Structures are given as C-alpha cells and as structure tokens.
Amino acid sequence: MKNNVPVSTIMSKNVIKLHLSDDLTKAEKLFKQNKIRHIPVVHGNKIIGMLSYTDLLRISFVDAVNEDDDIVDTTVYNLFTVEQVMAKKLVTISPDTTIRETAEILSKKEFHALPVCLGELLVGIVTTTDLIKYLIDQYK
Fold first, then answer.
1. Regarding the domain with residue range 7-138, which homologous superfamily does it belong to in the CATH classification?
2. What would the pLDDT profile of 53-88 be if each residue is shown by its tens digit?
3. Do residues 24 and 79 touch, judged by C-beta distance below 8 A?
4. Got the DSSP string for 92-140?
5. CA distances from 32 to 13, 49, 60, 94, 119 (A)
6. Which among 41, 7, 45, 44 has a CA at the least distance from the CA of 24?
7. Residue 10 and residue 132: Cα distance in Å, rounded?
8. Domain segments of the chain: what residues?
9. Got the DSSP string for 36-80?
10. What pTM did the predictor assign?
11. Which helix (H) or strand (E) holds 32?
12. In the 8-state DSSP scheme, what is residue 22?
C-alpha cells in the first residue's frame, strides 16, 4: 500500500453544506436526496459544526422505519435548531493529512466523517466510506 498519500486524493470536494439559518427539515431532505450521512455546518465558508443523520435520529424516530420515504413529518424538527443538534467540538484535518493519519483519527473517535479545511475554510469532507473505497481499490 502507498505511504503518505494525502487525504485530498479521496475526499469529497463538492461538499453539501448547511448554514445556521437552515432548518432541520432542510437537513433531512439533503440527507435523503443525496444519500449522505454527514453535513458540515458553515458560516460563510468557515466550518462551525457537523450534523449527522444520527443526530436527527436521536431527536426523533420519525424515519427509523422507512429511510426511503420522501414524506417527512417535521413536527419534532420545529422544536430544535441546527445549532442545537450539530456537533460543535470538531476535529478537522488539512488536505495534506495522509490517508493513514485520517484512518487513525477515525478509528479512535466516535464519528465517521472529518471536515477537511485550509485554516478555517472548508474545502472537503472525508468519511469512513471514502477510506473503505480507497482500501478496496488497493486490492484491485
């Protein structure tokens, strides 16, 4: 396996983002429409939080039965804001962080995605799925 490969080679660069002014109904729709599990929350392009699909499930069992349902019961979402539900204490990495270092961070933490930043500027996101796909490619 290659050493010192930067995470920028496997990260998603076209990141779907939320803003503090967005509501949880919008988040729910973005998760479902894009088949993703993590959405960075930004102020401008500065990362300020991360919302996961699991965060939404913690406040509601609305979609626990049928994730493919396009109709969302948003009643519980009106009780919370994105800021109240998102993770605020983030671990970020830079685009030149190696894939190995990224894997080590994710293996020791309780989350499955890392924002990739240049300073405070969000430039990408890398997930455990990205790491698994990279690993699979190494065996082709």
1. CBS-domain (3.10.580.10)
2. 999 888 876 544 455 555 545 677 888 999 999 999
3. no
4. -B-TTSBHHHHHHHHHHSS-SEEEEEETTEEEEEEEHHHHHHHHHHHT-
5. 19, 20, 15, 28, 30
6. 41
7. 10
8. 7-138
9. -SEEEEEETTEEEEEEEHHHHHHH--TTSS-TT------TGGGG-
10. 0.85
11. helix 24-34
12. S
Report helix, strand or coil for 19: strand
> Strand 121-127 to strand 113-118: parallel, antiparallel, or no bridges (unpaired)?
antiparallel
Q: How far is CA 52 from the centre of its chain?
A: 6
In tens, the pLDDT along 110-137 reads: 889 999 999 889 999 999 999 999 999 9
Q: Are 16 and 34 in contact (CB under 8 A)?
A: yes
Amino acid at 104: E
Edge-first strand listing for the sheet containing 46-52 = 18-19, 38-43, 46-52, 121-127, 113-118
